[in-house]
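hiii, so i know i said id send this last week but things got crazy w the move. better late than never?? heres the sequnce for the chain we talked about at the cafe, plus the structure i predicted for it. fair warning i was half asleep when i ran it
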Amino acid sequence: MLPTTYQLPAAILLVAGGALACFAGYRLFRIVLAMYGFIAGAIIASSMMGNTNAAAMVGAAIAGGLIGAVVMFFAYFLGIAMVGAGLGAYVATTAWGAFAPGEAPWVLVLLFAGLGALAALGLQRYVIIVGTAFSGAWMVVLGAMALPSLRSVRAAQAGVWILYPINPVRGERWETLAWIALGLLGTIVQLATSRTARRRRTR
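okay and structure toks below
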Protein backbone atom coordinates (compact mmCIF):
# COMPACT_ATOMS: atom_id res chain seq x y z
CA MET A 1 0.00 0.00 0.00
CA LEU A 2 1.37 3.39 -0.96
CA PRO A 3 1.82 6.24 1.53
CA THR A 4 -1.16 8.60 1.80
CA THR A 5 0.65 11.38 -0.10
CA TYR A 6 0.81 9.27 -3.23
CA GLN A 7 -2.64 7.70 -3.11
CA LEU A 8 -4.49 10.41 -5.06
CA PRO A 9 -1.98 10.42 -7.98
CA ALA A 10 -2.10 6.62 -7.99
CA ALA A 11 -5.91 6.68 -8.15
CA ILE A 12 -5.83 9.15 -11.05
CA LEU A 13 -3.33 6.95 -12.91
CA LEU A 14 -5.54 3.91 -12.29
CA VAL A 15 -8.55 5.67 -13.82
CA ALA A 16 -6.59 7.01 -16.81
CA GLY A 17 -4.72 3.78 -17.45
CA GLY A 18 -7.84 1.70 -16.96
CA ALA A 19 -9.79 3.82 -19.45
CA LEU A 20 -6.97 3.44 -21.98
CA ALA A 21 -6.97 -0.34 -21.59
CA CYS A 22 -10.76 -0.57 -21.57
CA PHE A 23 -11.40 1.36 -24.78
CA ALA A 24 -8.15 1.02 -26.75
CA GLY A 25 -6.53 -2.11 -25.34
CA TYR A 26 -6.36 -3.95 -28.67
CA ARG A 27 -4.92 -1.09 -30.73
CA LEU A 28 -2.43 -0.15 -28.00
CA PHE A 29 -1.79 -3.63 -26.65
CA ARG A 30 1.97 -3.23 -26.24
CA ILE A 31 1.46 -0.03 -24.27
CA VAL A 32 -1.23 -1.70 -22.15
CA LEU A 33 1.08 -4.66 -21.54
CA ALA A 34 3.81 -2.28 -20.40
CA MET A 35 1.32 -0.54 -18.09
CA TYR A 36 0.22 -3.84 -16.55
CA GLY A 37 3.86 -4.87 -16.21
CA PHE A 38 4.60 -1.61 -14.41
CA ILE A 39 1.70 -2.13 -11.99
CA ALA A 40 2.68 -5.74 -11.28
CA GLY A 41 6.34 -4.89 -10.84
CA ALA A 42 5.53 -1.94 -8.58
CA ILE A 43 3.26 -4.05 -6.36
CA ILE A 44 5.81 -6.86 -6.04
CA ALA A 45 8.76 -4.56 -5.39
CA SER A 46 6.98 -2.27 -2.93
CA SER A 47 5.59 -5.22 -0.97
CA MET A 48 9.16 -6.26 -0.21
CA MET A 49 9.90 -2.97 1.54
CA GLY A 50 8.91 -2.01 5.06
CA ASN A 51 5.96 0.30 5.63
CA THR A 52 8.05 2.64 7.79
CA ASN A 53 10.26 3.89 4.95
CA ALA A 54 8.00 5.67 2.47
CA ALA A 55 10.83 6.87 0.22
CA ALA A 56 12.31 3.39 -0.12
CA MET A 57 8.87 1.94 -0.83
CA VAL A 58 8.16 4.46 -3.58
CA GLY A 59 11.64 4.00 -5.04
CA ALA A 60 11.26 0.24 -5.07
CA ALA A 61 7.82 0.57 -6.67
CA ILE A 62 9.20 2.76 -9.46
CA ALA A 63 12.20 0.51 -10.09
CA GLY A 64 10.13 -2.67 -10.03
CA GLY A 65 7.50 -1.06 -12.21
CA LEU A 66 10.02 -0.02 -14.86
CA ILE A 67 11.49 -3.52 -14.96
CA GLY A 68 8.03 -5.07 -15.26
CA ALA A 69 7.05 -2.59 -17.99
CA VAL A 70 10.12 -3.36 -20.11
CA VAL A 71 9.67 -7.11 -19.75
CA MET A 72 5.98 -7.03 -20.67
CA PHE A 73 6.48 -4.58 -23.55
CA PHE A 74 8.86 -6.90 -25.37
CA ALA A 75 7.16 -10.15 -24.36
CA TYR A 76 4.23 -9.70 -26.77
CA PHE A 77 3.19 -13.34 -27.20
CA LEU A 78 3.96 -14.06 -23.56
CA GLY A 79 1.67 -11.19 -22.65
CA ILE A 80 -1.12 -12.59 -24.80
CA ALA A 81 -0.71 -16.01 -23.19
CA MET A 82 -0.71 -14.41 -19.73
CA VAL A 83 -3.93 -12.53 -20.49
CA GLY A 84 -5.57 -15.79 -21.55
CA ALA A 85 -4.16 -17.65 -18.55
CA GLY A 86 -5.44 -14.94 -16.22
CA LEU A 87 -8.91 -15.10 -17.74
CA GLY A 88 -8.92 -18.89 -17.51
CA ALA A 89 -7.84 -18.86 -13.86
CA TYR A 90 -10.43 -16.20 -13.08
CA VAL A 91 -13.21 -18.24 -14.70
CA ALA A 92 -12.18 -21.30 -12.68
CA THR A 93 -12.09 -19.48 -9.32
CA THR A 94 -15.31 -17.57 -9.98
CA ALA A 95 -17.25 -20.63 -11.15
CA TRP A 96 -16.00 -22.69 -8.21
CA GLY A 97 -16.95 -19.97 -5.72
CA ALA A 98 -20.45 -19.77 -7.17
CA PHE A 99 -21.19 -23.45 -6.62
CA ALA A 100 -18.87 -24.64 -3.84
CA PRO A 101 -17.41 -23.15 -0.64
CA GLY A 102 -13.72 -22.42 -0.24
CA GLU A 103 -11.03 -21.88 -2.80
CA ALA A 104 -10.87 -23.71 -6.11
CA PRO A 105 -8.36 -26.62 -6.28
CA TRP A 106 -5.05 -25.47 -7.70
CA VAL A 107 -5.14 -28.26 -10.29
CA LEU A 108 -8.43 -26.90 -11.68
CA VAL A 109 -7.10 -23.33 -11.73
CA LEU A 110 -3.90 -24.48 -13.45
CA LEU A 111 -5.89 -26.45 -16.02
CA PHE A 112 -8.13 -23.50 -16.88
CA ALA A 113 -5.12 -21.18 -16.99
CA GLY A 114 -3.44 -23.48 -19.52
CA LEU A 115 -6.58 -23.73 -21.63
CA GLY A 116 -6.97 -19.97 -21.48
CA ALA A 117 -3.39 -19.44 -22.64
CA LEU A 118 -3.86 -21.80 -25.60
CA ALA A 119 -7.17 -20.16 -26.52
CA ALA A 120 -5.59 -16.71 -26.30
CA LEU A 121 -2.87 -17.63 -28.76
CA GLY A 122 -5.46 -19.07 -31.16
CA LEU A 123 -8.01 -16.26 -30.79
CA GLN A 124 -5.71 -13.34 -30.10
CA ARG A 125 -7.95 -10.49 -31.21
CA TYR A 126 -11.00 -11.43 -29.17
CA VAL A 127 -9.08 -12.49 -26.06
CA ILE A 128 -7.08 -9.26 -26.08
CA ILE A 129 -10.23 -7.16 -26.51
CA VAL A 130 -12.22 -8.87 -23.77
CA GLY A 131 -9.24 -9.15 -21.41
CA THR A 132 -8.18 -5.52 -21.72
CA ALA A 133 -11.76 -4.21 -21.67
CA PHE A 134 -12.70 -5.90 -18.40
CA SER A 135 -9.33 -5.53 -16.66
CA GLY A 136 -9.25 -1.86 -17.66
CA ALA A 137 -12.83 -1.40 -16.46
CA TRP A 138 -11.91 -2.80 -13.07
CA MET A 139 -8.93 -0.45 -12.83
CA VAL A 140 -11.30 2.46 -13.51
CA VAL A 141 -13.70 1.30 -10.79
CA LEU A 142 -10.90 0.87 -8.24
CA GLY A 143 -9.38 4.25 -9.06
CA ALA A 144 -12.75 6.02 -8.98
CA MET A 145 -13.49 4.53 -5.56
CA ALA A 146 -10.28 6.07 -4.22
CA LEU A 147 -10.67 9.56 -5.65
CA PRO A 148 -13.37 11.17 -3.42
CA SER A 149 -11.84 10.26 -0.05
CA LEU A 150 -8.15 10.74 -1.01
CA ARG A 151 -7.53 7.38 0.61
CA SER A 152 -6.20 4.13 -0.73
CA VAL A 153 -8.65 1.98 -2.64
CA ARG A 154 -11.32 1.09 -0.14
CA ALA A 155 -11.63 -2.39 -1.56
CA ALA A 156 -8.15 -3.12 -0.22
CA GLN A 157 -9.69 -3.01 3.24
CA ALA A 158 -11.41 -6.25 2.29
CA GLY A 159 -8.14 -7.91 1.30
CA VAL A 160 -8.09 -9.94 -1.90
CA TRP A 161 -11.59 -8.74 -2.90
CA ILE A 162 -9.94 -6.38 -5.38
CA LEU A 163 -9.14 -9.48 -7.45
CA TYR A 164 -12.71 -10.85 -7.34
CA PRO A 165 -15.14 -8.18 -8.60
CA ILE A 166 -17.89 -10.78 -9.17
CA ASN A 167 -18.06 -11.51 -5.44
CA PRO A 168 -17.55 -8.30 -3.43
CA VAL A 169 -17.31 -9.31 0.22
CA ARG A 170 -18.26 -5.82 1.31
CA GLY A 171 -21.68 -6.34 -0.28
CA GLU A 172 -21.57 -3.27 -2.55
CA ARG A 173 -23.03 -4.83 -5.69
CA TRP A 174 -23.07 -1.55 -7.59
CA GLU A 175 -19.30 -1.84 -8.01
CA THR A 176 -19.69 -5.22 -9.71
CA LEU A 177 -22.48 -3.89 -11.93
CA ALA A 178 -20.41 -0.84 -12.86
CA TRP A 179 -17.46 -3.08 -13.73
CA ILE A 180 -19.59 -5.37 -15.93
CA ALA A 181 -21.31 -2.46 -17.68
CA LEU A 182 -18.04 -0.64 -18.35
CA GLY A 183 -16.34 -3.85 -19.47
CA LEU A 184 -19.13 -4.62 -21.93
CA LEU A 185 -19.03 -1.06 -23.25
CA GLY A 186 -15.26 -1.26 -23.68
CA THR A 187 -15.61 -4.60 -25.50
CA ILE A 188 -18.21 -3.17 -27.90
CA VAL A 189 -16.12 -0.06 -28.58
CA GLN A 190 -12.96 -2.08 -29.20
CA LEU A 191 -14.73 -4.54 -31.50
CA ALA A 192 -16.17 -1.66 -33.53
CA THR A 193 -12.96 0.35 -33.76
CA SER A 194 -10.74 -2.64 -34.52
CA ARG A 195 -13.15 -3.79 -37.25
CA THR A 196 -13.10 -0.32 -38.79
CA ALA A 197 -9.30 -0.20 -38.68
CA ARG A 198 -9.05 -3.60 -40.38
CA ARG A 199 -11.40 -2.51 -43.15
CA ARG A 200 -9.29 0.58 -43.80
CA ARG A 201 -6.13 -1.52 -44.06
CA THR A 202 -7.72 -3.86 -46.61
CA ARG A 203 -8.80 -1.04 -48.95
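btw The chain has one domain: 4-202. thought thatd interest u
miss u guys!!
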